[in-house]
Design goal:
There is one protein chain. The protein is mainly α. The chain has seven helices and no strands.
Amino acid sequence: MAESDWDTVTVLRKKGPTAAQAKSKQAITAAQRRGEDLETSKKWSAGQNKQHLVTKNTAKLDRETEELHHERVPLEVGKVIQQGRQERGLTQKDLATKINEKPQIIADYECGRAIPNNQVMGKIERAIGLKLRGRDIGLPLEAKPKKK
């Protein structure tokens, strides 16, 4: 026991505050009282599907006029999506869930309000089994032969 130093304290496994605790209102006010520098930043659209929220053409959409306007999905394509979806017995919400998109996107494509996105069009084509792009709109989607 002579080797023990009673003035020395060793703390094992002491953890700092978790991220949630560090961001809490109490932690922020305590840091402000101590006079510490605080940096706050708001994450915009964190954890969301960004490809539909922000596009490079946002400024162009704002300046859209009669002469300069973005291409929209033709009503013919919207009708093909609607018919294919109904043949499979899917609602707009079911189809959206199946392709990992929001139901509003399916509604926009069916009404002709959406700006065509090839990724989304490809997902819808595979889900309903009908072509939506090119000359053969409305024809059954052909399975591509696997490369050997």
